[in-house]
Automatic annotation (TrEMBL):
InterPro entries linked to this entry: cNMP-bd_dom, cNMP-bd_dom_sf, RmlC-like_jellyroll, WH-like_DNA-bd_sf, WH_DNA-bd_sf
CDD domains (alphabetical): CAP_ED
Name of protein: Crp/Fnr family transcriptional regulator
Source species, domain of life: Bacteria
Coiled coil: none
Native source organism of the sequence: Propionigenium maris DSM 9537
């Protein structure tokens, strides 16, 4: 990417930060990736990946065989933990419909630029780490405490009451619910007239009932 493309893709960067990138000859280490549904993208350990358009399913695997599946959208980023802590965690990104990602050479930037001129970048990275941690805690805390029915409804509530899926299989992976079990849960909640499924959109039609089920 040239410096103008970087500025367009990352409008929050200041002129000073852009100059630092240019002076360190880092602009050619920035890449724009476009992935569509079904595409699998494997990030590099030394880079940070910012989603600027669309959504992606992020699969994270640890040495202890733990697996985390989360949805990431515009403004969210993956890979920043590796800049601060060398933990063996593998990431895979898969597009949902279409997704545009900016690859940021964060480790090169840390070595070649003046840290004082990139303070805002580090602040944004730490904010993103905190947001991702809260995302994991909320998601898996709910998974432990809720039934599958409650977990599905809580997920829909967190999405504003409506969610368009790429496939039931994708949603099952995201929620860590076996696909046939999820299909039965959806049918059961549809029969209760709490949600409706229209093609690929699942929508809460009785928010009061949904919230009551989640609470109890």
């Amino acid at each position: 990417m040239d410096i103008r493309e970087i500025s367009k893709a990352l409008p929050d960067l200041t002129l000073e930060e852009l100059k630092q990138i240019e002076d360190a000859s880092l602009e050619k280490s920035f890449f724009l990736h476009k992935i569509t549904k079904g595409d699998v993208f494997i990030p590099r350990e030394e880079s940070l990946y910012l989603i600027v358009e669309g959504t992606a399913l992020v699969y994270a695997y640890t040495d202890g065989d733990l697996e985390f599946n989360l949805e990431f959208g515009p403004g969210e980023c993956v890979g920043q933990l590796g800049a601060f802590h060398q933990e063996n965690m593998d990431f895979i990104l898969r597009g949902m419909d279409s997704c545009t990602i900016v690859e940021i050479p964060i480790q090169k930037a840390m070595m070649k630029t003046n840290i004082h001129s990139l303070v805002s970048i580090y602040q944004r990275m730490l904010t993103a780490i905190t947001q991702n941690l809260l995302k994991v805690l909320k998601s898996y805390g709910a998974k432990v405490n809720f039934s599958n029915e409650q977990y599905l409804l809580n997920f829909l509530i967190s999405k504003g009451g409506s969610y368009t899926i790429t496939s039931v299989e994708d949603l099952a992976q995201l929620l860590h619910i076996e696909m046939r079990t999820l299909q039965r849960v959806i049918r059961r909640v549809v029969d209760k007239k709490v949600i409706e499924k229209d093609n690929k959109t699942i929508k809460i039609i009785d928010m009061e009932a949904a919230e009551k089920i989640v609470r109890f």
